[in-house]
Amino acid sequence: MTQSFTFLVIAGSLLSAASGQTGLAPKQYLSLPLGSIRPTGWLYDQLMVQTNGLAGHEHEFYDYVSETDWMGGPSYYSSLEEAGSYWFNAMVPNGILANNSGIIQRSQEFLDYVLANQDSTGWMGPEVNTTKPRYLWGRYPFMFGAIQMVEYNPDLTDQVVDALYKFVNLANQMLHNNGEGVEAWTQTRWEDFVMTLQWLYDFHPNGNEALLVDTMEQLKYTGVPWEKVFESQYFPTTATDDLPNPLGYVLSWHGVNMAEGLKALPATYRFTHNQSDLDRASEGWDLLFQYHGRPSGIYAADEYLAGLEAARGTELCLVVETMFSGSYLYQVIGDPKYVDRVERIAYNALPAELTGDFWSRQYLQQQNQIAAKNMTPDPFPNDGPYSNVFGLEPNYPCCTVNHPQGWPKFITNAFVTTADQSSLAQVYLGPFQTKTTLATENPVTVTVNTIYPFSDSLNTTITAAKAFTYYVRIPSWVVNGTISINGGAATAVSPNNGLQAVQVKAGTTTFTLNLPAEITTESRPHGSVAVHRGPLHYAFDIPRTSKILTQNGEQPLAKDLEFDASTAWEYAIDTSTLQFVNNPPPSGTLPSPVFDSGLPPLSMTVTACPINWPIAGSTFAASPPTNPACTGAQKTITLTPYGATKLRIGEFPVFTAN
Ligand SMILES: *[C@@H]1O[C@H](CO)[C@@H](O)[C@H](O)[C@H]1NC(C)=O
Ligand SMILES: *[C@@H]1O[C@H](CO)[C@@H](O)[C@H](O)[C@H]1NC(C)=O
Ligand SMILES: *[C@@H]1O[C@H](CO)[C@@H](O)[C@H](O)[C@H]1NC(C)=O
Ligand SMILES: *[C@@H]1O[C@H](CO)[C@@H](O)[C@H](O)[C@H]1NC(C)=O
Ligand SMILES: *[C@@H]1O[C@H](CO)[C@@H](O)[C@H](O)[C@H]1NC(C)=O
């Protein structure tokens, strides 16, 4: 350990002493180990759709993660830059939750290979014995994957924890050596490493607390100051295209960096104990969605933050990273606004950005998307013309390897325990089975039967050895929600901070939740509106023609698809005529897949009229016209869940029907 290290540890402990607290601040809620929470019903089916699609097969044919190169090893084992690291982080939970032996074996081989090739200095990855510069970031998603493997299989603990400590010691020296290993991307993504350090601190400190906290501080000091990026005086309130970044950190306004950076302030709070870090995290979250938000739950960034216009793009990587960050924000802070939004993103923005079979994905989705094709010109200042094509790797390969973390991490964060581990809470609503042992040796099983979000009702059965307080999230949009316990009368829900308490006795407890919601509209730019009911956003699903642009030579299911509108989409709607339609599946089972045209059981009807709505740049919709005149007869159109639409209008001009 170097001299400077000792000095900084003292400085660090003085910092903690100044706030009167030492050690890491506790989280409000704790996640459960991978494998404790399993999807059932339609959500299990959705995970299998992903597993049988691009996510579960790409390692077999896609050269970004399947080819052989350095050191005679397959590159996906060793390429801890982006390809292998993202793939591993996502496919560890995907393989285990889908119980797919091929993927589980592949993840194990990946882990074994990386650990076996860690060099004597502690470095992991393709820069071993090469002259390639050692940048830290690429290892961060790999470390998340390794932690998940340990959670699932504690036999791996010593091997992984030892390797992580070797790497932490090296990284600590590099950081003290003028921030070695921190280039511009690593500089924005330091919080992911801090979270791994905090996992070590929480579960395997082994006397290394000072080293761990010092490394967290070094990462923060050499990284982007997120407490400033998220400060209202610096935060961009428009598309950032020509806007100079007042802090000089251009990459802090990059959409994926920001999605990952949402974790930075809650992670910082744990070692600073500074309430201001939590307050700023919350303000930053609100600013992001106020100025760049989408009715689908997510925000727009076609590379950089892109404002509110409906033709601008949202990158698939930032969709899944925001979901993961929102889960973590909730666990540290406990504000239900984070999980309300993550659930909306999961059930709207995520499935909208892939074909129903999860074989083809976009790089950018648009809130109003009238074509998915090679667009010249395109509406994205910093992305290519191929960005909204549904394919294997449109525009960049990153989202092909990163998107598979979306569903698995949503599932693994769907339940949490309270900090004292005596209570269990369901925070994401949907069909699950969770098994865990709570404090005071209380083994508990929870089974949730529902087709939510395609229904308002959820049936929960809990078995427990001892009495405890169970919690279930009641989303902020619920109106007239009721709960009926053990077949008793339905009574109004009464959530506290978003959670309904249910007193569970030893033995079996059942309860039924009914969680209706009103139809609501959201004001969007140019006087347009977006339509919601409960967790789902509703859009006009533009009927489409489809053309295969290319097919992968080895795997023909991996194809690039062009979609064009085959009917008119230029409508204004009268929101006073919106009517909700529920056609529950007679079998009780949803179709598989469910996120494609005409498949979800819920829809809305609305009176619409044709209008003049110009096309911009020949392939995308201009801004919705304000107060347009009807150019033809009124008719009734149907709106469907946004996640099932691949071409759509989600922000409509309005008119008043007669
Ligand atoms: C996973 O699959 C194996 C082999 O088919 C089976 O024995 C095991 O019970 C399954 N595990 C779970 C959790 O479903
Ligand atoms: C790196 O080089 C050293 C010294 O030549 C050698 O001992 C070691 O095996 C090499 N490591 C890898 C992973 O190839
Ligand atoms: C807490 O954070 C704020 C904002 O970054 C800073 O101004 C303040 O000095 C910090 N407080 C302590 C005790 O470090
Ligand atoms: C929930 O329980 C009610 C009452 O037992 C039953 O009618 C309903 O079919 C159940 N729904 C689901 C999704 O299991
Ligand atoms: C809630 O209850 C009120 C009063 O009965 C009723 O007017 C309203 O339609 C209900 N809303 C929903 C979404 O159930």
TrEMBL record:
A UniProt-annotated Pfam family: Beta-AFase-like_GH127_cat
InterPro entries xref list: 6-hairpin_glycosidase_sf (IPR008928), Beta-AFase-like_GH127_cat (IPR012878), Beta-AFase-like_GH127_middle (IPR049046)
Secretion signal, residue range per the UniProt entry: 1-20
Domain Non-reducing end beta-L-arabinofuranosidase-like GH127 catalytic: 268-410
Residue span(s) of domain Non-reducing end beta-L-arabinofuranosidase-like GH127 middle: 436-507
Gene Ontology terms describing biological process: carbohydrate metabolic process
SUPFAM superfamilies, A to Z: Six-hairpin glycosidases
Keywords assigned by UniProt, alphabetized: Signal
PANTHER family xref list: PROLINE-TRNA LIGASE (DUF1680)
Protein name per its UniProtKB record: Six-hairpin glycosidase
